[in-house]
Amino acid sequence: MGGELVIVEEEVKMSAIGAGIDIELPKGNVVIDIGGGTTDIAIISANDIVISRSVKVAGNVFDEEIKKYVRSEYNVAVGERTAENVKKELGSLSKYKGERSVSIYGQDIVSGLPKEVIISSEEVRNVFVNAFSRITDLLIEVMENTPPELAGDIIGNGLTICGGGALVRGIKDYFTGIFNIPCRISPNPLTGVVEGAQIYQKVVNTRLNNDYYGKNGNALRRKNNPTLV
């Protein structure tokens, strides 16, 4: 791909940078990156990941849970695209104004014929809350294993949510209500990883030019176009 110097970094770390967190500071920050395949939770301080955990509960699982719910509740099989549309249109973790119901179409698992189903915001919310409980449990585990000296930083800095899952309605109130800690959404949840990598690339270039990497710097400075993975 043309990259001379390839640096492998944790995705959640790039998400933090893309969300505007200065990871160089010796202060603890909790980052929750809810992507398509996994949710990664990490506490970052002084340019290092202090503790991190990952669980395979994210956007794809939300789609699957919606499909399972419709099948068990209405005996109708729906496709991935239908489930994703329901997730985007009705997905929430708390009540919101303008709640509604939508019609979806699938295949009756008994007769095999096409069938219409009307599903409400409340039904989808129950599906989401059940799925998010696993993310909540993982966050509790991370918090329990956090070094005591970072506890004050976490309370002050709060939680930062990144990734496509950050767009779920009511997600801030959901986490704030459970942990009683301020919560904020990344300003660019869908593109934060890429933007964070671009920012970090400039940092690496600066370090190479300043011989930050010591003896290796002489060789690395010639490779002034690092690629982040």
UniProtKB/TrEMBL annotation:
GO terms under cellular component: cytoplasm
Keyword Cytoplasm on entry: yes
Keyword set, alphabetical order: ATP-binding, Cell shape, Cytoplasm, Nucleotide-binding
Subcellular location field: Cytoplasm
Domain of life, per lineage: Eukaryota
Coiled-coil regions listed in the entry: none
Protein family (similarity comment): Belongs to the FtsA/MreB family.
GO-annotated molecular function: ATP binding
Name used for this protein in its record: Rod shape-determining protein MreB
Matches recorded under PANTHER family: CELL SHAPE-DETERMINING PROTEIN MREB
Example of a GO biological process term: cell morphogenesis
Primary location: cytoplasm
